[in-house]
């Protein structure tokens, strides 16, 4: 009991701390979204790599638009549609994935407006590369040519012949009549299923503490009752031999 109770309390407190960190991360991310519009955009290279502190911050980059892809099955205001993703070739040689906007309906190349030609300077919110499960990102494969399930360097480098930044940008204003994609909270900073799993584990570990105390009390009570019965002679100290009388003939 002396070992089990501190062990359960430590693990329960650790899980509670994880939950509180996620709550604080969610609050911080929400505040960052509000403050993003008040900050002046900074050059892209100064804000990399993407962290929880830099995610959602306004950045600016200059280059030429190149390959255009569609990201299907993306919701906006409970409507299903798709992102129009265009790779911006910068002077560094790497390409920056730029989400130029969102369109409703099924993803189709004919619906997506062509990107501007020539050198352009984009301004938008910096986002970390997606992984399956983040913000509803699907892991399904077998997409048609010109589509990608996740906006990540790991996925995009297989579709183009040049390096891609391990980050992406969503434009502050939708391009060519498209709706701007809102800034997403950084990964592991929202009150998602993982956060409430931590809260559930917290309750579980403290429930184990109550179970240990209950079992200790029950066993102690049993020992006390057994000792009392032995004092009263209700329970013999040793088993007495049983004598079997021969049956009468």
**Low-confidence parts:** none
Class by SSE composition: alpha/beta
Question: Which strand order do you get reading across the main beta sheet?
Answer: 2-3-4-6-5
Distance between the termini: 60 Å
Characterize the largest beta sheet: strand count, sense, and whether it forms a barrel: 5 strands, mixed, barrel
β-strand amount: 15-25%
Total of helices: 3
DSSP, total strands: 6
Radius of gyration, CA atoms, in whole angstroms: 32 Å
Q: What is the overall shape?
A: elongated
Order of helices and strands: HEEEEEHEH
Q: Report the helical percentage.
A: 25-40%
Task: Give structural notes.
The chain crosses the membrane at residues 199-220. It comes from Streptomyces levis. This protein is α/β, with parallel strands linked by helices. The chain has a domain at 37-191. Helices cover 31% and strands 23% of the residues. The chain contains three helices and six strands; from the N terminus they run αβββββαβα. It has a five-stranded mixed barrel. A hairpin with a 2-residue loop joins strand 2 and strand 3 (79-90). Helix 1 runs antiparallel to helix 3 (193-231). The longest helix is centred in the C-terminal third of the chain and has 39 residues, at 193-231. The protein is elongated. The mean pLDDT is 81.
TL;DR of this structure?
With 249 residues, this protein is of the alpha/beta class.
């Amino acid at each position: 009991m002396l070992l089990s109770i501190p062990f359960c309390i430590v693990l329960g407190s650790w899980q509670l701390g994880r939950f509180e960190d996620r709550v604080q991360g969610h609050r911080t991310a929400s505040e960052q979204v509000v403050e993003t519009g008040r900050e002046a955009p900074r050059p892209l290279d100064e804000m990399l790599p993407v962290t929880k502190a830099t995610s959602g911050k306004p950045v600016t980059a200059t280059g030429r638009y190149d390959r255009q892809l569609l990201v299907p099955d993306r919701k906006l205001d409970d409507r299903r549609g798709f992102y129009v993703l265009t790779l911006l070739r910068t002077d560094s040689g790497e390409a920056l994935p730029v989400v130029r906007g969102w369109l409703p309906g099924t993803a189709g190349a004919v619906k997506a407006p062509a990107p501007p030609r020539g050198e352009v300077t984009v301004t938008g919110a910096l986002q970390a590369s997606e992984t399956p499960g983040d913000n509803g990102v699907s892991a399904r494969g077998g997409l048609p040519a010109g589509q990608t399930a996740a906006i990540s360097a790991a996925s995009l480098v297989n579709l183009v012949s040049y390096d891609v930044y391990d980050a992406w940008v969503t434009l502050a204003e939708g391009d060519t009549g498209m709706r701007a994609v809102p800034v997403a909270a950084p990964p592991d900073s929202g009150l998602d299923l993982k956060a409430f799993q931590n809260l559930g584990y917290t309750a579980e570990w403290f429930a184990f503490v109550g179970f240990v105390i209950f079992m200790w009390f029950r066993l102690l009570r049993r020992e006390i009752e057994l000792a009392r019965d032995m004092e009263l002679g209700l329970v013999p100290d040793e088993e007495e031999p049983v004598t079997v009388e021969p049956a009468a003939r």
